[in-house]
Design goal:
44% of the residues lie in helices and 26% in strands. It has helices at 23-31, 55-65, 68-77, 79-86, and strands spanning 2-9, 15-20, 44-52. The N and C termini lie far apart (35 Å). This is GIY-YIG domain-containing protein.
Length: 87
């Protein structure tokens, strides 16, 4: 299985979308600062993921979620989560 995931920085209003075969290990890598693009916004928490049967589907979904339309979809899906965090 391949997973598309969304991380939320716990110190800033910053989100990150990626894909992997092992979400738990990937989250550890982000929090250890092994990814230069996410290092300044540590620590991260996993707030959303989707499972895909093959790598190509996961890559396409990741690219879509990084578009404006994909961000809107994520905001709608995570509306309750984001409301709880801000209150």
């Amino acid at each position: 299985m391949f997973y598309v995931y969304v991380l939320q920085s716990t110190i800033r209003d910053q989100a990150y979308v990626g894909f992997t075969t092992d979400p738990k290990n990937r989250l550890k890598e982000h929090n250890q600062g092994l990814n230069p693009s996410t290092k300044p916004y540590r620590p991260w928490s996993l707030i959303y993921y989707e499972a895909c049967l093959n790598e190509n589907d996961a890559k396409h979904r990741e690219v879509y979620l990084k578009t404006t339309q994909g961000r809107r979809l994520l905001n709608r899906r995570l509306r309750d989560y984001r409301y709880q965090v801000k209150v």
